[in-house]
Design goal:
With 314 residues, this protein is α/β, with parallel strands linked by helices. It folds into 2 domains: 21-263, TIM Barrel, CATH 3.20.20; 282-314, no CATH class. It has helices spanning 21-30, 44-53, 62-70, 80-91, 110-122, 150-166, 180-197, 211-221, 241-247, 259-276, 287-293, 296-305; strands at 36-41, 58-60, 99-102, 127-131, 172-177, 202-205, 226-229, 251-254. The protein has an 8-stranded parallel β-barrel, surrounded by 8 helices. The chain starts with 20 loop residues before the first helix and ends in a 9-residue tail after the last helix. The relative contact order is 0.12. The site of alpha-methylisocitric acid (MIC) has 13 residues, from helix 3. Residues 1-20 are annotated as: Disordered. InterPro entries: ICL/PEPM, Isocitrate_lyase_ph_CS, Pyrv/PenolPyrv_kinase-like_dom, Pyrv_kinase-like_dom_sf. Residues 1-16 have a biased composition (Low complexity).
């Protein structure tokens, strides 16, 4: 799938047809056997920082979206609109870098799942994960989860795959099962196999607890690539990139990579204001530094290219 540079009047500014982020992600999965490393981002700022550091792609955490956009726990508060809007903003900060975005349960029955895939596709999202939890879902690393039947899960994935194919989109459909906690490993594998048969591109076993399980899910799902959700201090032990690669995973996401350090840093600064009356912020963090992180250079270039001098003295 490619898109053109045509503008609203139908004029093509450039002959080039850049490859979409979805196509890029799909190629990373099919044309190499490397592990794709994606840090979690929860807003535009954390996404900009990840882009500055440079990664294969980014992962938009639903837990982080609930926390940052809504100030709520990961308990199904975020609607399709909340998630899509957030994902679109992040995906388009640098459309060359693939974004995988959480799509929870797909937000309803087959029609809503199809709508979710279409909207994520149009928003520039490269991949999304859809799970088998009930609609009143919760973070996969909390107790008391409930899952729908394997048939309902398979219908969600079929609807997602059909929507992808109808759009001739390369968007990568990732099937996530949360069944390990309540139904055990065999059932979780059965569900992922059913999802792969229904057209999922990638399998995601949520809350994997041991290296044996990890190795076995990669082995038994092959040739379907498997994603590792590296949530620190949750159900899954902390494994390094090298260990994840050795276990056979093809994508590793870190949902809390930005959230946890942000909490620590923000809270300690707020406490300092309360206790000492100053923020004691790093003196190199000027307003200009902040705006540079979030695209001052690109904004200036657009203005200059249009013949302006608005930001000459910034
Ligand atoms: C991957 C996840 O869906 C997310 O929203 O980032 C969460 C992460 C978390 O809350 O621990 C999940 O694993 O359910």
């Amino acid at each position: 799938m490619t898109y053109t540079n045509g503008n609203a009047n139908g004029h093509n500014g450039h002959a080039a047809t850049p490859t979409s982020a979805a196509t890029r992600l799909r190629k990373m999965l099919t044309e190499s056997d490397e592990l794709i490393v994606m840090p979690g981002v929860y807003d535009g700022f954390s996404a900009r920082i990840a882009l500055e550091v440079g990664f294969d792609g980014l992962y938009m955490t639903g837990a982080g979206t609930c926390a940052s956009k809504l100030g709520q726990p990961d308990l199904g508060f975020a609607s399709l609109n909340d998630m899509r809007e957030h994902a679109e903003m992040i995906a388009n900060l640098n459309p060359r870098i693939p974004l995988i975005a959480d799509a929870d349960t797909g937000y309803g029955g087959p029609n809503m799942v199809a709508r979710t895939v279409a909207q994520y596709h149009r928003s520039g999202v490269a991949g999304l994960h859809i799970e088998d939890q009930i609609q009143t879902k919760r973070c996969g690393h909390l107790g008391g989860k409930e899952v729908v039947s394997v048939d309902v899960f398979q219908q969600r994935i079929s609807a997602a795959a059909a929507a992808r194919d109808k759009l001739a989109s390369d968007i990568v459909i990732i099937a996530r099962t949360d069944a390990l906690q309540t139904h055990g490993f065999e059932e979780a594998i059965r569900r992922l196999k059913a999802a792969a048969a229904a057209g999922a591109d990638v399998a995601f076993l949520e809350g994997v607890t041991t290296k044996e399980e990890a190795r076995e899910v990669c082995r038994s799902l092959a040739p379907t690539p498997v994603l590792l959700n590296m949530v620190e201090n949750g159900a899954t032990p902390s494994w390094t990139v090298a260990e994840a690669r050795e276990l056979g995973f093809r994508i590793i996401i870190y949902p809390f990579a930005a959230l946890a350090p942000a909490y620590e840093a923000i809270r300690s600064t707020y406490l300092r204001i309360k206790e000492t009356g100053v923020t004691d912020i790093d003196p190199t963090f000027t307003p200009k530094k902040l705006f540079t992180v979030v695209g001052l250079k690109e904004a200036t270039a657009v203005d200059v290219a249009a013949g302006g001098q608005l930001y000459e003295k910034v």
